[in-house]
Design brief:
Blueprint: H1 2-21, E1 29-35, H2 44-52, E2 58-64
Parallel strand pairs: 1-2
Length: 67
């Protein structure tokens, strides 16, 4: 029984890995809203990658002064 469960879990793991590798190369449009100042600093790296074209998706940023 243990051998069968191990085999099943290995097959499921292999199936998940192969499915993850088959992602499309098409970029998805994503809109991101952040606040100015310290609360929006977490998105700075993503903004930089988006400008350079290195991001996985196409991002549009909205930087607001108040919620």
């Amino acid at each position: 029984m243990k051998k069968r469960m191990t085999l099943v879990s290995l097959l499921l793991t292999a199936a998940m890995l192969l499915t993850a590798c088959m992602s499309s190369a098409e970029k998805t449009d994503v809109r991101v809203a952040v606040l100015k100042g310290p609360t929006g600093m977490g998105a700075a790296v993503l903004m930089d990658k988006n400008e350079k074209g290195e991001a996985e998706n196409a991002y549009t940023f909205i930087i607001a002064g108040a919620p």
